[in-house]
Design brief:
The chain is of the alpha+beta class. The chain has one domain (about 15-70). The chain contains 3 helices and 2 strands, in the order ββααα. It has helices at about 35-40, 45-55, 60-70, and strands at about 15-20, 25-30. The protein has a two-stranded antiparallel sheet with strand order 1-2. Helix 1 packs antiparallel against helix 2. The longest helix is centred in the middle third of the chain and has 11 residues, at about 45-55.
Length: about 80
């Protein structure tokens, strides 16, 4: 949506949609992020989920995903 921005390639892409104060925002997720989020939603431990994602996505950046989730209020609970 930015003038003169490079055109994205056609294909599926994982996106995080947050609605802080009911104002929706979309964020493109790096490869592997949706897999990690889904594993955590299914109550897979963080360590196990990270090992799995990093084995399949060697360039996965957990700190970038964690920052995005915290900054946008996407983390709602910690499960022991």
């Amino acid at each position: 949506m930015t003038p003169d921005a490079p055109q994205p390639s056609a294909g599926a892409q994982d996106v995080l949609i947050t609605r802080q104060e009911f104002d929706p925002h979309m964020y493109a997720l790096p490869a592997g992020s949706a897999v990690l989020i889904e594993d955590l939603q299914n109550q897979t431990s963080l360590g196990t989920a990270l090992e799995s994602v990093e084995a399949n996505y060697p360039d996965f950046d957990f700190s970038a995903l964690l920052g995005l989730l915290i900054q946008n209020g996407a983390l709602t609970a910690l499960v022991p």
